[in-house]
Amino acid sequence: MDTSDNKEKTAKTGTKKPETEEEKKAKEERLKLWRENEAKRKAEKKRKLMLLIMSLALAIITFFLFLGYVLGYVNMKTAKKNNDDSFQNVNTQISNLDSTLIKTQNRLIAVQQETTNLDSALVQTQNQLITAQQEITNKLESNYRAVKKQVNNVDWKLKTVQKKVTEMEKKTQDSLDNAKEREKTILLLLLSQKKTMAKQDSVITELTTKTVKLDSATTIANEALVKKHWRLR
Description:
Layout: H1 2-13, H2 21-232
């Protein structure tokens, strides 16, 4: 502001006049007032900005609260519908279970009747088994007695056979002993015969040698007789 006034004065006069005390005070008052107004204006702008921010924040909070309420309401409706469906499903399952229970009870009654019939059949079968077991026991005892008799006969025959076998083994052993004695005697005879044959072979060899010598002497004598005969002629 003071710069613009000085420029106006300079433009009018062409020279700058010195300021008086009153002008300085007025200038300071105007400057101070301008600064106060500027501070108020900034404070007002800042206050309005804060109010705008708070309004926006309140609007956003209100929006989210409303959105949460709407979502909660929707979830509540959905949960209620699901609960209704679940309750309906439970009722249906209970009805099915009641039907199944009735069928099961009827089946149990039928099974009890079948069990009673089976018990009766089981008693009858047990009586038949007792009768059959008694018959089998009697037959087994009869067969056991017969088999025992046959076993006794077989044992007697086996003992007889064993006795005969023992006697035959004894006779066979005696025969073997006799045969061994005879074999020993034969071996001794053969040994003696071999010795005799060896002696005979030695005598035959000696006789053969003597015969050869005799033949040689005879041949020489015959030759001498022939020569003598020729001389005599």
